[in-house]
Predict the 3D structure of the following.
Amino acid sequence: MNFLAIQCLEQYVTHNAGMDPSSNSQMTLKLRIRDQKSALTLAFLLALTPIAKADSWSYPATRAEKIFTFGKTKIVMVTDGTADRRNPEFTMQVFKDGELQAQVRNLSFETVAASPDGHLFVGLSNRGIPGSAVVVFTDRGAVTMLASHRIAQFDYCDKSVSIVRKWYNEDDPQIRFGDENTKAGTSGITLRDCRGQTVDLSDAVLKAYATAERKPR
């Protein structure tokens, strides 16, 4: 029964039933109609409200390493769940010629790409834990761009309460560097987003932070 039908029925009961408005039978019917209206309103609001998928996770109680090698540069992603399996420690280590150049905590990503000259690297993540969506850094470990899922709001194709933050095509990211020598900056880097569109990385990050600013806190 829609809202218009309910209103018509209520008016009919009040004006055309020929009953005393104070009678128990009519009051009971009006209360039932109001209950129906309240239930329909609640159902309508619930239908409009996006429901995020619930998460459940637990990391192994071990120290695991994932290694990416690009020429003389080695990038090691460390996940240490020995102290806390639900909130492990994440660390990015950058090695050059076998020597540790930098170690940055609370960074993790599934995809890494290197510029043609091997001086610049892009790390991307579709995971909300620890939250590092974009990390651009040099072969010396200097971070030149960082975007977090905890603050920025990307154009997600899939999202859960804590873990899933799908914003780029992890299977085929197609990361491209605009200039042959990209040591000086991050301009010109493009990738494929989760909707199959080629986007500029800097533009995507700026848009994600702008979207977060517009959302009510």
Q: What stands out?
A: The first strand starts at residue 63 and ends at 70.
